[in-house]
């Protein structure tokens, strides 16, 4: 998978999870993809101060991204 394909598929994954975040007043944006393995995202809106945002990030966002791009090793939130 090329870097461009990885970016496209990560965006598809974010598009899949975005409606759930928006329903709670939040959002997410892609910051960067490092070495085609590490995805950096920024949680926005209500997600910023949410007490379960780490759980959302790991079990929701990371799992969805890995479904689209299995080679991704980790997803982290950049505040």
TrEMBL record:
It comes from the Bacteria. Residues 10-76 form the NIF system FeS cluster assembly NifU C-terminal domain. Belongs to the NifU family. Gene3D superfamilies: Fe-S cluster assembly (FSCA) (3.30.300.130). InterPro entries: FSCA_dom_sf, NIF_FeS_clus_asmbl_NifU_C. It comes from Neptunitalea chrysea. Coiled coil: none annotated. GO terms for biological process: iron-sulfur cluster assembly. This is NifU family protein. GO terms for molecular function: iron ion binding; iron-sulfur cluster binding. It holds the Pfam family NifU.
């Amino acid at each position: 998978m090329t870097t461009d394909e990885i970016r496209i598929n990560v965006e598809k994954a974010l598009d899949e999870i975005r409606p759930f975040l928006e329903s709670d007043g939040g959002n997410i944006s892609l910051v960067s993809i490092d070495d085609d393995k590490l995805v950096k995202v920024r949680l926005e809106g209500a997600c910023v101060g949410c007490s379960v945002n780490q759980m959302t990030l790991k079990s929701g966002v990371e799992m969805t991204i890995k479904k689209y791009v299995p080679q991704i090793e980790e997803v982290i939130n950049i505040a």
